[in-house]
Each structure stands twice: as structure tokens, then as C-alpha cells.
Amino acid sequence: MNKTYAGFGLALLVQVVLLAAIPWGRVGDASTGQTIWLEVRASDRQDVMQGPYLDLDYEISDPKQFAEVPALNMGEKVYAVVRQTDSGVWRGLRVEGDLSTPLPENHVAILGAVVDRGLEIHAFLHEEADGSWTADSVMTGREALKDRPVHRPEDRAVATAWVGRGVIVYRDIESYFVPESRRQQLAEDLRTHPEEVFAQVRVDELGRATLLQVRIQERVYDF
Amino acid sequence: MRFPSALKRELPQWVGDGLLEQSQADAIAARYGLGDMREGTAGLLLPAIYIVGACLVGGGAISFVAAHWDSIAIGVRIGLLLAVMLGCEISGFILWKVRGTREKLGQALVVLGTVVFGANIFLIAQMYHLHGPPHNAFGVWTLGALVVAYATFSSPTMALACVTSFVWSTGWIETHPHDFFWYPIVLCAACVPFLLRRCAIVFTGVAFAVGAALSVCAGTDSGEQWAVFVTLIALGALYRGLGQWLGRDERTAHLAAPALRLGGLAVLLPAFMLSFYDGPGKDVVENLWLSTGWLWTALLGLVYVGAVIVWVAVLRRSSDESESPNRPLTMLAACVLVTVGIAAGHHVVLAVMANLALVGIAGGLLWDAVAVGQRREFWLGLGLLSLVLVSRFLEWDTHLMVKSAVFVLCGIAVIVGGSRFEKHLKGRQL
């Protein structure tokens, strides 16, 4: 019987350790890391298991935002070096493969990974009198189809293609869960100020980032 | 109420009324296997009810905390979640293993604790704004469920681990589409202690998880539909054979039903999909024998070897008189027909083979129903036959009058066939 008790106690201990491992290293001391503000594009999403959240697409996810970018391989770990601008927002400077060189005081390196987030390209076409097709406009992303009618006249069509697009993801800081009670207000703020969304993150000396709060224009969301 | 259940309830009363001696009642109970009835039916049903109930309560817990009660500090929230989880598991363990007074309730509480553990993974991640691929959370959930299942020997918890590990495996397959898929082998090995004790719920969980994961793996590794259909049919053959084989031994007879049902599903579903002339069969044969990866065929080979072994064992042993004689063979023939249809590489041949397979299965069911006097099999067979006929006539662009005549004839055939069968059954009972 004692063996059964010990086995059960051990099983419970394993479960508690597994749960403790989830946020491990994320509750860092403010003195050990640098707190910075980054510009993001946010969209309101819903997760079946975890409820409503903001999907944060960082400006520094796009390799084009950096002046110096080495050849990026999918799945590779990279460091995005950012520096503080006059507005207080930190912007991308260069991408490095490792942290071998020490950084100046107002520079911070954030650890990320290169992934392929294929880009949808939609060409909105119409048929000419001679039977040929011409593109009226070309838009990217799934959102482009959002307000377009599904049933179109016979002389209208949409051609869609996917192209590979390497982006840098920062997995631990890309979601911000929102309480049900503040969701409405947050959605309204996002609608009126979509270009003024900023995320505050703390970055430790190894480049690991922790999301602290989100600011939309002047309103701060801190849960 | 079924005859054995009614008999089990009546026997003590007959002994009490002096209609039977205890020795005679024991002999009757032994003849109808009434002693094992609880293990075979209620033994499987109760844990199933508990696990469904526990999952619903766990789902409620997830939604409750997912509402994100931000007015409570994170530390207090985590404390509450841990208290609920440990409270369920410890109280269940005491009731089941320490006091031994409420075994089923204790088991249910242990399962509920494991479900709450899974909910806690998502909720703690939510508190720290972590939102990784969902299958990672299911991987952690599987580890937590496994340790509790082993520590308490709780078969519903092990079945839960099978389900959570299957969800994890689908994510793993997606990120490693062309790596060797070791999950089915590891899962079977992990379940060996439970399978040796002939736990029906664990057996069902393993069979489902392994079968479903193998089919997903075949589709992802190959990138083609034909691989999925071939794998499903092979699994169907394996499970049907396994079901027949297990059903012949009293000690494993309660495992036969889940194997037969899963096997039936794995054969009927693809056969029905492929029976359409203008359906998925066209895509299946279009890129036949093309595959971006071939590692899935190693596991398919194991399934074929297993299927051959069990079917040889089934066919070599003389069958029991009470066993349905034709149905197993028609199922096996259906598997061969659909596989040959796929291999033929022409969608018309495939549709014909799939239709023949479905009609053969329905015929086998009807034949056995009349020969052995099984009502359920009769209506299953008739239902399947009607489904095939109706599907074909809805699919084909024939004259409306022809369709009308066929539907009327089908209806009359069902009514006449059904009444004649019921009369036949009555005659047998008299």
C-alpha cells in the first residue's frame, strides 16, 4: 500500500512540476532585463480553449524593416537588434545569427525564429469585350476578401496565389489574452486607432522576451 | 431489456420462490455467461459515462477560467486551479484506493482531476499570454495523464491519455510530415500493462488513436488521398480480424465489439465515399502510386502483417456454431475488393468495386440475420442496402419515372422483407 501511495504522490508531483514549467523563466526580475516598446499590428482573435486574445504582428517581424539582414533559413534562430528612437519606440536595426558582439547601451537583441508565413495574393479581374481578362487591383492577405461578395457577375473573378514569405516570429510575445469585460472597449480602440498599437516587452540578456502590456493610442491594457 | 440481463435479474427470485435449486441457477448462469456480464457491458459503460461526464465538467472549468477573472491575482488563481486539480485527484484516490468504499466515484474523480490538469495547462498559459501550437499543450497533458494512469492503474485515465496523445500526434505529424512516425508503436507499448488486464476502454482508445493517427500520417507523408484510403481499408481488415479472433475466447470476448465496430467504420466509410462515380475516387486514382514520402508504408506493412496473421488464425480455427458464418468473410472480401479497386487505377472500376463491397457487406449481414436469427443485423443490412441503392439513384441522372419506380420498389422491399423477417423470427422463437 505504501508503494501505491508513493507512486500516486510522485504522479501528483510530476503534474505540478509540468504546470510550473509552463511560465518558467517568464516572471523575471525587472532589474535583469530591459523594458522596451515595440510597434505592432493587432487583430482580435478567439481561441476555443483560452478565450479572446489579440494577435500581435510586430513591425520587427518583417525582415524588410531591418537595414542589415543576412540570408534567412527557415526554422533558424536569429536575433533582431532594435534601438530606441526619439519617440520612445524601439525599431529594427539589423538581424544577427548570434549574440557574439556586445551591444551599445540603447540597443537590445530579441530572440526570434524564421518561419515561412505564406502570403496570399488576390488579383481582382474583369473580362474585357474581346474575352481577355484584366486585373483591376491586386491585394494581399486573407482580409482582402472580407467585404467582397461571394457571388460575382460572370465578367468578374478573383485569382489567388500563395507565395512563400520568411518572417521572424517571437512566439512568447505574439498573443495577448483579453478579459471578456474589456473586449468590447479594446475592439473599439483597435477600430479607431489601428496604427497606434504598441506592446511593452521585457527582454533579458539572452534575448528572451516577455510581454508586459499593450497600449492603444493612450489607453494601456495591463492584465 | 435484453434476455441475459432479464435472466440475471430473475434468477435469484426464482431460487427464492423455490422454482430452481441454487445449483441449477448456477448452471444457467454459467451457460449464459451471466457472471461476466458486468465486465462486458456495465463494466465498459460506467467508465465511459464517467469519462464523458468528467470531460464536460473539465470543459466547464476551462470556460469558467477562460473568462479571465482579472480581478484576482495570478498567484491566487494558480492556487485555486491547483487546489481543484489536487482536490479531485486526492479525494478520488482516497475513495477508490484507501477506503475502497466508492470505487467508481473515486475513479471518476481521478479522471476529473486529470481533465482539470489539462484545463490548467491552457489557463496558466493564458495568464502568462502564452499561445503556442495547441498540440504542445496536449503533449504535456498526455504526460500528466500517463503518470496518474500508471500510479492508480486507472483505465479511463489511460484512455484519456490515448485521446490527448492522438491530438498531440496530429500536430507532430504536421510539423514532421516526412519523419518516421513512431507514435503508434510507443502508444501500444505504453498501454501494454492495461491491455494485459484486458481493459476494454483502453483497448478502444488505443485502437482509435493508432488507427486515426496512422491514416493522418499516411495522408501527410504521401501528400495523396490514395494512401489514406489504402491505410483505412487495411486497418479495417486488421480490426475486423482482431475482433473475430478476440470474440472466440471468453476472457477477451468483451474486447471484440470495439474492434469490430472500429473495423466496420474503417471499411464502410471509405467504401461509401469511393462508391460515388463522380466522387473522391477520381482524386484517389489520379495520382496513384505517387507519394512525397514513403516512410508511412513501413507502418502500413506492419498493419498488413498483423491483418494476415489474425485472419489466418481466424480462418484456421473452426468457428463456433453461434458465430455469424458469412459476415466476417464478406468484410474481408470487401477490404480486398476496395484495395484492388484502388490499385486498378481507374475511377469507374473503383466505384464498381466499392459498390460491390458495400452490397456484399449488406448481403452478408442479411444472410446471417436470417440464418442465425439476429434482428439488429437484419436491419443494419437492409439499411446499408437501401443507402447504396438510394445513393446511386440520386447520383445518376436517370429519368424521374425510373427514380420514382425504384424508390417505390425499395420501400415495398423494405416493408415486405421486414415483415417476413419478423415472422421468421417469431417462428424460430416458437
Description of the structure:
The complex is a heterodimer of chains A (223) and B (430). Chain A is globular and about 85 Å long. In chain A, strands 1, 2, 3, 4, 5, 9, 10, 11, 12 and 13 form a ten-stranded mixed β-sheet that branches. In chain A, strands 7-6-8 form a three-stranded antiparallel β-sheet, with no helix packed on it. The model of chain A has no long low-confidence stretch (mean pLDDT 86). Chain A has helices at 2-21, 180-192; strands spanning 34-47, 51-58, 77-84, 89-96, 107-116, 119-127, 133-140, 156-163, 166-169, 175-177, 197-203, 209-216, 219-221. Chain A is mostly beta strands and 223 residues long. Chain B is mainly alpha-helical and 430 residues long. Among the domains of chain B are: 1-39, no CATH class; 225-387, no CATH class. Helices cover 81% and strands 0% of the residues of chain B. Chain B has helices spanning 3-16, 22-31, 37-66, 74-98, 103-127, 134-152, 155-175, 183-196, 200-222, 225-247, 253-274, 281-286, 296-316, 327-344, 347-373, 375-395, 400-429. Chain B is globular, with a radius of gyration of 25 Å. The two termini of chain B are 20 Å apart. The chains are: A mainly beta (223), B mainly alpha (430). Chains A and B meet through helix 1 and strand 10 of A and helix 4, helix 5 and helix 6 of B.
Low-pLDDT residue spans of chain B: none
In angstroms, what separates the terminal alpha carbons of chain A?
A: 46 Å
Helix content of chain A: 10-25%
- Counting structural domains of chain A, the number is 2
Write the layout of secondary structure elements.
The complex is a heterodimer of chains A (223) and B (430).
Chain A: H1 2-21, E1 34-47, E2 51-58, E3 77-84, E4 89-96, E5 107-116, E6 119-127, E7 133-140, E8 156-163, E9 166-169, E10 175-177, H2 180-192, E11 197-203, E12 209-216, E13 219-221
Parallel strand pairs in A: 1-4
Antiparallel strand pairs in A: 1-2, 1-11, 2-10, 3-4, 3-5, 5-9, 6-7, 6-8, 11-12, 12-13
Chain B: H1 3-16, H2 22-31, H3 37-66, H4 74-98, H5 103-127, H6 134-152, H7 155-175, H8 183-196, H9 200-222, H10 225-247, H11 253-274, H12 281-286, H13 296-316, H14 327-344, H15 347-373, H16 375-395, H17 400-429
Helix pairs in contact in B: 3-5, 3-7, 4-5, 5-6, 6-7, 7-8, 7-9, 8-9, 9-10, 9-11, 9-13, 10-11, 10-13, 10-14, 11-14, 11-15, 14-15, 15-16, 16-17
